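FAQ: What does a multi-protein file look like?

Like this. Sequence, then C-alpha cells, then the next protein.
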Amino acid sequence: MLSRMEKVVNCFSKRPDAAVRLLCFPWAGGGSIHYARWGNLISSSVEVYAIKLPGRESRAKEPFAQSMQQIVDEVVSALLPELKEKPFALFGHSFGAMTSYAIAEYLKRVHCLEPVHIFLSGISAPYSKTRLCAPKKSELSDDEFLHWLTTVGGTPPEILANPDILKLFLPVLKADLHVVDNYKCSRPESPFLSCPVTCFDGKEDIPHDLQGDSVEEFSPADGKNMFT
C-alpha cells in the first residue's frame, strides 16, 4: 500500500541528501509527469516533488478535488514532515501557481513555515479584481468551453480535434477550473512571506495582473481574458 506521500508525490529521482526540495504543481487539467522529469535534469542539490492531484494518472479512480482547501489539506498533511525536514521551494504554472500561493499562505498561517523561494508562472494575483471579475469557465457550455480553449491557446490541436481524447481531458480540466472559479482570497494587508517571489509570463501571453491592481471588463466569449 502506498504511503500518503507516495500517493501525492511523483519523484523520478530520489535525492535524500539534496539541499532543497522543489514542489511542482500542475496546470489546470495537467498531471505530474512533466515536472517529475525535471528531477532527472536539475542539479543534484535539488530533489523534485511533482504533485499528483486526484482524478488523474495513478489516482484516476478518485473523485476530483472540489475546493482549493481540499488540495491544500491533502498536500500539507502528506508532506508536512518533509517540509519541516529541510528547505523547500514551490513552482506552479497557471492553476498550479494559484495552488502554490494557497499552500504557501496556509503553511505560514498554520504551521509558521515558509518556502525559500516561490516561482509563479502564467497567472494573475489570486486577489486580482481582473481574475475575480472574469466569467466562471467551469460553468460554460461544452461549445463555449471548447471555443474558449481554442481561443486562449496552449491546448494541442490534436486534442481538440479528437472526441475520444476530449472525453478524458475535459472533465479533468473543468474540475480544476471549478476549483479556480471558487477560490477566493483577500489582498494581504502586508507581505506575509519573507522569501523571494519570481513571476513568469510568456512572450506571447497577454500580460497578467501580477500586482492585483487592475480591473477589466469581460464578455463570456472573450477567451483571451479568461485566465486559468
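And here is the next protein:
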Amino acid sequence: MLKKQLIMERALELFAKQGFESTSVQQITEHCGISKGAFYLSFKSKDELIIALIDHFMMQITTEIDQIVRNTPNDEELLYKFYYAIYHSFHKQSDFAKVLIKEQSQTFNKDLILKMRYYDKLIENNILSMIERLYGEEVRQTKYDLMYCIKGFMNTYSQLFVFYNVPLDLKLLSESLVEKTNLLARHTTVPFISQELIEIVKQPMNAEVTKEQILEIVGQRIEEIETSIEKESLILLQGQLLEPTLPPAIVKGLLGNISNHPHCKWISYLLRRYYNF
C-alpha cells in the first residue's frame, strides 16, 4: 500500500471516531506507525489531508452519479439506479459518510466549506438534469423544489447507514424513494424555490477546476498509467487542451476511451464539463 493511501485510510478511522478537530497529526502518525516527517512528505498539513479525503470520496460519488444519469437509456430505471448508487456508496464508505454528515454542520473551515459546496453544486446539476429528462414540462415550475426534496432524501436516509447498525434493504429503499419522488413530481402544485431564489442562494464556484488544473491532473494520470489505449487517449486530450485541433466527435471518442478506467473517471468527468458534452 502506498504511504499516502495508508495515511488517508488510517486517518479516516480516527476522524470517524473523534472528528476532525479532536484528531491530531501525532495521533494519525502513531495510528499509521510512521514518523511526523513521513506524514509531512505526503501532506503539508492536517487540513490538506482532510481536503484530499473529501476529494477522493466525492470524486467517486460525483462521477458515478454522472455516469448513471448520462448512460442509463431506460427512463424507468434511471431514478432507481440513482438512489441505489447513492446509498450503496454511503453504505460502502460509511466511515467517510459519518465524518461528512457530522463535520458539515460543525466546521468553520472555509476551504472545507467551499470544497463541499463545489461537489454539492455538481451533484445538484446532475439531479436537475435527471429531473428535466424524466418529467420535462410537467415540473417546469417545481423542479428546484423537487431537487431539494431529492437532496433531502439523500441526506436523511443515508443516516440510517451511518448512525444505526441495522441491516437495510437497498432495493426496497430505492423503490420506496422512487415512488415518493414520482408522487412529488406529479402532484406538487405550489412551488417555493424559484429561478430567482436559486440565483440568490447560488454560491460562487471558487473551487471550480481551471484548464491549468485539468492539464496538471491529465499529466499525473499519463505518468500513472501503463502503455494502453487510455494513456494514448490522454496524451491526445492533453494536446487538445494545449492547442485545439480535433473535431468534437474525435474528442468525444477519446473521452469514451478513458471513461471506464478507474484512474480516469474524474478527469473524464472534468473534461466533459469543460467541453460541455
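Q: Is there any per-entry metadata?
A: Some entries carry free-text notes. For the entry above: The longest helix spans residues 46-71.
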